[in-house]
Amino acid sequence: MSFLTAEHMTGGYGATDILHDCTIKVEQGEIAVIVGPNGAGKSTAMKAVFGMLPLREGRVLLGETDITAMSPQERVANGMGFVPQTHNVFTSMSVEENLEMGAYLREDDFRGTIEQVYDLFPVLKEKRRQPAGELSGGQRQQVAVGRALMTEPKLLMLDEPTAGVSPIVMDELFDRIIEVARTGIAILMVEQNARQALNIADHGYVLVQGRNAWTDTGEALLANPEVRRTFLGG
Ligand SMILES: Nc1ncnc2c1ncn2[C@@H]1O[C@H](COP(=O)(O)OP(=O)(O)O)[C@@H](O)[C@H]1O
Ligand SMILES: [Mg+2]
User: Fold this and answer.
1) Helix (H, G, I), strand (E, B) or coil at 14
2) Per residue in 42-101, pLDDT tens?
3) Which residues have their alpha-adjacent CB atom under 5 A from ion ligand 2?
4) CA-CA distance, 79 to 106, in Å (whole number)?
5) What is the CB neighbour count within 10 angstroms for residue 174?
6) Ligand with an atom nearest the CA of residue 49
7) Which DSSP state fits 61?
8) Rounded-to-integer distance, Cα 1 and Cα 4, Å
């Protein structure tokens, strides 16, 4: 039994199904990556896992708990953290205020978690009083990841965390994500940098038109001739 089991998901927006019998699983402490062409339904799958999309069929289990009927907020309380693809920081608020917002569900002292986020992303400590909107793209993504870590999630979901950043910044962000996974947190990540993401992935899911096209270890997908030809550009 996987830590996250999102299985046979079918659903979409209004009457149009985007996901068709889509299944995504993540084990504790592992990095699972969803890749696929633009419009394949990667973000839609993330929204479905997080409870932002009603499913017509399928279910989502976190640990042994069936969370299919839970709101996103209840899922956060149950150990999910989500960094959406867009609008993932409050630009007019300071870096530290963003992190504090991330802890809104917590009633205990979260100061220690802020310090952990600063240890992971030292530049955020330097810039803690600056409005997040003044930071570079890569630094903003660090704020978004840090904000999601504030609830101490057991599963961290990231939708295209490296969108719009340079290759060097991407590598660095991936290193930090590996570091987070090593603490035992499960990572589910959508990435458009497919090769690099599959390189660090324990498991990869290639989605095409809302369906599971290939599912395997990151290594096996990178070596799969058909995946290479049709999706990785040879
Ligand atoms: N809010 C929405 N309302 C209606 N259709 C949407 C919405 N968001 C996405 N879609 C459609 O769903 C499909 C999958 O989109 P998305 O999940 O964003 O793909 P990906 O993240 O793989 O690029 C696309 O055809 C897109 O146009
Ligand atoms: Mg997307």
Assistant:
1) coil
2) 999 999 999 999 999 999 999 999 999 999 999 999 999 999 999 999 999 999 999 999
3) 42-43
4) 12
5) 20
6) 1
7) E
8) 9
φ, ψ at 175 (rounded to 5°): -60, -40
Report the residue among 43, 52, 82 best suited for mutation to probe ligand 1: largest number of ligand atoms under 8 A from its CB. Answer: 43
CA 38 / ligand 1 centre spacing (Å): 9
Per-residue burial over 78-98, b = 16 or more CB atoms within 10 Å of its CB, e = otherwise: ebbbbbbeeebbeeebbbbbb
- Tens digit of pLDDT for each residue in 188-199? 999 999 999 999
Q: How far apart are CA 189 and CA 177, in angstroms?
A: 10
The Cα 208–Cα 35 span in angstroms is 9
For residue 104, what pLDDT is reported? 87
Three-class secondary structure assignment of 155-199:
EEEEECCCCCCCHHHHHHHHHHHHHHHHCCCEEEEECCCHHHHHH
The residue length of the chain stands at 234
| Ligand 2 centroid to residue 153 C-alpha, Å | 22
CB 48 within 8 A of CB 17: no
* DSSP structural state of residue 206: E
Phi, psi of 53 (to 5 degrees): -140, 120
Cα(181) to centroid of ligand 2, in Å?
Answer: 22
Which pLDDT value is given to residue 183? 94
Report pTM: 0.96
pLDDT tens by residue, 120-166: 999 999 999 999 999 999 999 999 999 999 999 999 999 999 998 99
Helix, coil or strand: residue 78: coil
